[in-house]
Design goal:
5 strands, disordered C terminus, about 400 residues, flat, 15 helices, about 50% helix
């Protein structure tokens, strides 16, 4: 622009053309640079997208400087982008990235009290509630009835619903909407459990518990009045029925949750609840495996029980006094260094091994080869060369 102001009439057209080209390339470079800064601050953006924006900004900057006829200083940025990082620089960037992720995770855990998996589960439940709660046609009064049933103190007596002041005392208490309690019970959100003196305790069903949790997650889906809730239910069922009476009757009934909603909903678990559950499971596993019993001393091995003479004495005490007929007993703790070769016969096989071999029963599928006179008998499979099978008699 300054060049155009100082130009003559002869070169004004050329300088104006150069100005427009330079301005266009500079604006493109600024746009790529702004997106690169924005994506660099977003941890979810991949590094490839950031590199793409940075390279685009450098390319347009080089074109703008070349069109203006000035020194192309942006080429140094392209060289810096194309330079390969050393292993040390890669390690430093990876450490920095992990440090930032750890700091962000710690901040989110402190704010929500949940880990990343349960935070994602909580966000999924909010999205699920936004699509289900408005279709229920509830008001805040329906939620209060379910909250009273959640405490275990909602009971039904003489055609009236009340919330007892104390658990187990089924007399008096705060009155609860009779119509809403009946509608929730008819829809399957409440169930009546018989108690003493003709009292029925209204408890939450699994569907009622899930519906209550979803209504708490999306209070904006509740209607302001019973009339607005009735109109919403009527608009939903109007196309299913032809008669006006059937439409009104269907609108007065509360719809149940759609199939599969109870299974889709999963309540997130906080870190405190995870620690308490881990402690409880560890205690239960300790008890199941025969852990510490109060008042009973833990048995300890006698002194010297792990020495070689003590082990040999224990094994000897457990051996039978006499070996069964036709069977050989092995010495379990005999090492290779303690073994001694027994006397062998002229054929090179100990009589004890020959006797043990002959005493074994013959298998059906095999036929034993008869030993001819003057030939040495076959060695027992598994015996090492030059050693006989040790037996105890």
């Amino acid at each position: 622009m300054n060049a155009v102001c100082r130009s003559r009439s002869g070169n004004a057209a050329r300088l104006e053309q150069v100005m427009h080209v330079t301005h266009r390339e500079a604006r493109e470079a600024e746009g790529y640079a702004a997106r690169a800064q924005q994506w660099a601050a977003d941890p979810e953006m991949p590094d490839s997208a950031l590199n793409y924006c940075a390279r685009g900004a450098v390319d347009h900057a080089v074109r703008a400087q070349a069109a203006a006829g000035v020194e192309v200083t942006a080429a140094a940025l392209r060289t810096a982008l194309e330079r390969k990082l050393t292993p040390q620089e890669h390690a430093e960037r990876e450490s920095q990235r992990r440090r930032e992720e750890a700091e962000q995770e710690a901040a989110e855990r402190a704010a929500t009290g949940m880990d990343s998996e349960n935070r994602h589960l909580a966000a999924t439940n909010v999205y699920l509630a936004q699509g289900i709660v408005p279709a229920l046609g509830w008001t805040a009064g329906h939620v209060r009835v379910l909250e009273a049933a959640e405490t275990g103190r909602l009971y039904w007596l003489d055609g009236k619903a009340r919330k007892a002041a104390e658990h187990g005392v089924w007399s008096g208490g705060r009155r609860i909407s009779r119509e809403r309690a009946q509608d929730l019970r008819a829809a399957g959100f409440l169930v009546a459990v018989d108690a003493a003196d003709g009292v029925s305790v209204l408890a939450l069903t699994p569907m009622g518990q899930v519906a209550l949790e979803l209504a708490r997650l999306c209070p904006a889906g509740l209607h302001e009045s019973d009339k607005a809730a009735y109109e919403a239910r009527y608009a939903r069922v109007a196309k299913r029925y032809k008669r006006m009476d059937d439409k009104k009757a269907a609108a007065r009934r509360l719809p149940a949750l759609a199939g599969g909603t109870v299974c889709r909903y999963r309540r997130p678990v906080t870190l405190v609840e995870q620690e308490a559950r881990a402690v409880r499971e560890a205690a239960e596993q300790w008890e199941d495996e025969g852990g510490y019993c109060p008042g009973v001393e833990t048995p300890r091995p006698a002194p010297g029980a792990h020495t070689a003479p003590a082990r040999a004495a224990a094994v000897t005490a457990n051996l039978p006094a006499q070996a069964p007929q036709g069977q050989a007993l092995r010495w379990p703790f005999a090492s290779d260094a303690d073994r001694k070769p027994q006397a062998q016969n002229a054929a090179g096989v100990s009589p004890a091994r020959d006797e043990a071999t002959s005493a074994q029963p013959r298998s059906r599928g095999r036929q034993r080869t008869r030993v001819t006179a003057g030939a040495a008998p076959r060695r027992t499979r598994g015996a090492s060369a030059g050693w006989g099978q040790e037996t105890l008699f």
